[in-house]
Specification:
Layout (H helix, E strand, L loop, with lengths): L5 E4 L2 E4 L9 H39 L11 H10 L19
Antiparallel strand pairs: 1-2
């Protein structure tokens, strides 16, 4: 492995690099930790904003004078059950075990 990230193993060759040291010294670990804390803090902020928006939608839905939720089967469920046909009354039969060949 050379200093610029190039490597060679028999006929295989290639290069590889990274922006900075990952596991060399306490300072590199501290920088990686701070970078990860920043990413997680940003993710938490985005999640909190999404939750706040969903809370607002939920409050709006609760306050709106809409009809109550349907208690019976929906049209989609009626179509699905009509496609499936009547329920089966007889239990499913088990297939006999497979015979093994000797030989």
């Amino acid at each position: 492995m050379s200093a610029d990230g190039a490597w060679r193993l028999a006929l295989a060759t290639g290069t590889w690099g990274k922006p900075g040291p990952a596991h060399i010294g306490a300072l590199a670990r501290q920088r990686a930790r701070q970078r990860r804390i920043g990413e997680l803090t940003e993710h938490i902020g985005e999640t909190n904003a999404s939750l706040a928006a969903l809370d607002d939608q939920l409050r709006g839905l609760a306050a709106s004078p809409r009809s109550p939720l349907p208690t019976g089967p929906t049209p989609w469920l009626r179509r699905q059950t009509a496609r499936a046909g009547p329920p089966r009354n007889k239990p499913r039969t088990r297939l006999p075990p497979k015979r093994r060949r000797r030989g």
